[in-house]
Amino acid sequence: MIPASFDYEVAETTAHALALLAEHGEDAKLLAGGHSLLPMMKVRLAQPAVLIDIARVTELSGIRVEGAELVIGATTRHADVAGSDLVKTETPILAHAAGQVGDPQIRHRGTIGGSLAHADPAADLPMTLLALGGSVEITGPSGVRVVGADDFFTGPFESVLATDELLSAVRVPRGGLVPWGYQKFVRRANDWAIVGVAAYDGRVALASMGGTPLRALATEQALASGASAQEAARLAAEGTSPGYDFHADVDYRKHLARVLTRRALEGEAG
Length: 270
Prior knowledge:
Elements: E1 7-10, H1 14-24, E2 28-31, H2 37-42, E3 50-53, E4 63-66, E5 69-73, H3 78-83, H4 85-90, H5 92-98, H6 104-107, H7 112-118, H8 124-132, E6 135-140, E7 143-148, H9 149-152, E8 153-155, E9 158-159, E10 166-173, E11 180-185, E12 195-200, E13 203-207, E14 214-215, H10 217-224, H11 229-233, H12 250-265
Parallel strand pairs: 1-3, 2-3
Antiparallel strand pairs: 4-5, 5-10, 6-7, 6-10, 8-9, 11-12, 12-13, 13-14
């Protein structure tokens, strides 16, 4: 299908982008790589009157170390995250997850901030940020606020971002030697997860098991009490509310959550 007509604005700086958001209000959407927004526009699930292109805002990209955290600008491409020696050293699970997003074309255009702001409960990076216990920087008219991943996602394709704010950076803890595992069950290599699991230092996050990426809290509690990976993984589906479609029903998704959680806890990166 063809998107509805829209106007196009190019932001030169973060301040310029905020000014354009203030000017156009709820009629505006931010555009960086476009691989989350444009497919929704093509099927008319999103019909913004104005697109504000922030891809040229250089202050919103890049990867750097700040104390105990790795800070990644929102418009940093997935391919740059996946290929970064700094990310591979400090947060290898994030480099791995970025390398699982879509196909090479998508990874060279899509951005980490766009994926997180899109808040798809089946996507790789929201689940990974939740497992890492990371946070996002949100910039708006009142300045910058930092929101933890546990509080950022509020529903399917919904987050705490206000219409006059933009996601400006991602913060994740440094921990190159922390044990981790990553599993995603898909029909084809570049599909969204039918079920996904990211495990990092005792935290376990699930994709496609509810309206947002979810923590497998029962599994985490079992691990903290000394349970084995196999024992803890049996609890992975507790407290979840997966949907169903032609790919998998509810029971099959719960089964996948248990199987993939065991593999992730055993350090597999599939």
